[in-house]
């Protein structure tokens, strides 16, 4: 995909995620936002906190990669083996359960409105990064993988990884919300 179309698609996705959280989760009470479907499952806020924890790492790493990037090239966005695998594992339509790192697992956290505000701030920052990425070489390996920093993703695949990871967990939060509604309707 051409870089301009690629970044526009990611921008649309992030804008949609931000709207979903603002419209579907922000109006709910904290008790409902913190309610888990089961003791070992995440609440809606825990899903968002998980994303916040990743954003705390990836947004600055992406910003640094963009700032240090070579000028943009008109070449199609390319993927390394690691990048393609990482993106495909996180796609929302991939039903394979993934185990998260302990430090990224928010299960049992005491969460409040700050979680929603932080999520929104991270999305705003990501939208700014996507705009800045218009001038960067998306095919340059520049973003260290959070759990093993010796491995690096290309800038484009790292941006897509972050977005599909967010889509996956916002959809998870939506499933929690729908499940709780169904439970209440019984």
UniProtKB/TrEMBL annotation:
One Pfam family it belongs to: DinB_2
InterPro entries associated with the record: DinB-like, DinB/YfiT-like
Residue stretches making up the DinB-like domain: 18-173
Entry's transmembrane regions: none
Protein name: DinB family protein
UniProt source species: Hymenobacter glaciei
């Amino acid at each position: 995909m051409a870089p301009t179309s690629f970044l526009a698609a990611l921008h649309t996705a992030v804008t949609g995620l931000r709207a979903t959280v603002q419209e579907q989760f922000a109006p709910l009470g904290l008790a409902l936002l913190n309610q888990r479907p089961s003791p070992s499952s995440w609440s809606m806020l825990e899903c968002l906190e998980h994303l916040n924890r990743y954003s705390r790492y990836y947004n600055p790493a992406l910003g640094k990669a963009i700032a240090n990037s070579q000028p943009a090239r008109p070449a199609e966005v390319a993927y390394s083996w690691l990048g393609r695998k990482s993106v495909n594992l996180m796609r929302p339509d991939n039903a394979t359960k993934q185990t998260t790192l302990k430090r990224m697992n928010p299960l049992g956290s005491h969460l409040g409105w700050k979680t929603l505000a932080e999520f929104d701030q991270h999305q705003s920052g990501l939208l700014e990064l996507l705009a800045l990425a218009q001038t960067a070489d998306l095919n340059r390996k520049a973003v260290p993988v959070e759990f093993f920093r010796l491995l690096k993703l290309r800038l484009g695949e790292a941006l897509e990884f972050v977005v599909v990871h967010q889509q996956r967990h916002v959809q998870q939060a939506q499933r929690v919300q729908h499940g709780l509604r169904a439970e209440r309707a019984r």
